[in-house]
Design a protein that fits this description.
Distance between the termini: 163 Å
Shape: elongated
Oligomer: single chain
Largest sheet: 12 strands, antiparallel, barrel
Structural class: mainly beta
């Protein structure tokens, strides 16, 4: 009974709800023209970028002082390439004899050079004297049987590695040949055939001017008695030095002097020496000296040969 009473009220409520959900056409608004609505970009708030804080400066590191330059090891200069070097020997010898022949002989020799890569200065000299003692009727006399000396110098200068020029000056005396004083000036050109520490060999040629003074009344030359004589000669020579085993040295020099004009004669000189080291200072020396002069006055011989032995003191290196 109660359910029949509630049913009409439920129907009325449903109709009212349906009318509210579906409005009448008069209540539906009319459709109008579309209206343009301006679009506006959304406002973006500005972004403020704050600068990054400055980095703190790095602490200053004290600068390291530069290392001192490395000094190259000291190398002493070669004497041969800077101041040159002396090399040679000075020798002396003495010979005594008694019995059937009483006599004595004394000799001195000098042979040295000052060498640089581009030039060379040579000094040479020798002195020989011999005396004989005789007794006649109880009277003892001593006479000089020979006395001669020779001294000179020569300067060589390289023009190229193989060619060189030279100038020389020489003085000599020979009692046996009555030669009081001879002066010789020479000059010319030469060539190094071989040159190293153990062997040197040179050849050369040139001209020489000679002036002689003779003792006493003079000597006969070209059929006339002369106390003074001058002449011009050509010269051709060669010389070499040899080093053997570090302690033995051999030197030789040969020079030929043909007269420049006919009838002026020919001269020749030969000097050779062998030295064997005893220690760093002393050497045993054997030297040969030979002279030839086609104009030697009689009774002097044209050939003169001397063999000299003794001790030598080394000069320089």
């Amino acid at each position: 009974m109660k359910q029949a009473f509630l049913l009409p009220w439920l129907l009325v409520g449903s109709v009212a709800l349906a009318q509210e959900a579906n409005p009448t056409p008069s209540e539906i608004p009319a459709v109008t023209e579309p209206v343009a609505v301006p679009l506006r970009a959304p406002e973006v708030a500005p972004v403020v970028v704050e600068p990054a804080p400055a980095a703190e400066p790095a602490p200053e590191v004290p600068a390291t002082p530069p290392a001192p330059p490395v000094q190259p090891a000291y190398v002493p200069p070669l004497q041969l390439e800077t101041a040159g070097r002396w090399a040679g020997d000075f020798g002396a010898g003495l010979t005594l004899s008694s019995g059937n022949t009483d006599g004595q002989a004394f000799n001195l020799t000098l042979d040295t050079t000052y060498t640089r890569p581009e030039d060379k200065l040579s000094l040479f000299g020798n002195y020989l004297e011999s005396r004989a003692r005789t007794e006649t009727d109880g009277v003892v006399t001593t006479s000089i049987t020979a006395r001669r000396w020779r001294a000179g110098t020569r300067y060589d200068r390289d023009i190229t590695e193989q060619e060189f020029g030279f100038v020389g000056l020489e003085f000599s005396h020979d009692r046996v040949r009555d030669l009081d004083l001879r002066t010789l000036v020479s000059t010319g050109l030469g060539r190094h055939i071989y040159k190293d520490a153990e062997l040197t060999w040179d050849i050369y040629a040139g001209l020489s001017w000679r002036e002689d003074y003779y003792r006493g009344e003079g000597v006969e030359i070209d059929g006339a008695l002369r106390k003074h004589y001058t002449t011009t000669e050509t010269l051709f020579g060669q010389e070499s030095t040899h080093q053997f085993a570090g302690s033995t040295r051999f030197t030789q020099k040969f020079v030929l002097y043909p007269g420049l004009l006919k009838g002026q004669g020919v001269r020749a000189t030969l000097d050779a020496g062998l030295l064997v080291d005893i220690n760093k200072t002393l050497s045993l020396s054997v030297k040969l000296q030979s002279r030839y002069d086609s104009q030697s006055p009689p009774p002097a011989e044209k050939y003169d040969l001397s063999l000299i032995t003794g001790l030598s003191v080394k000069i320089g290196n």
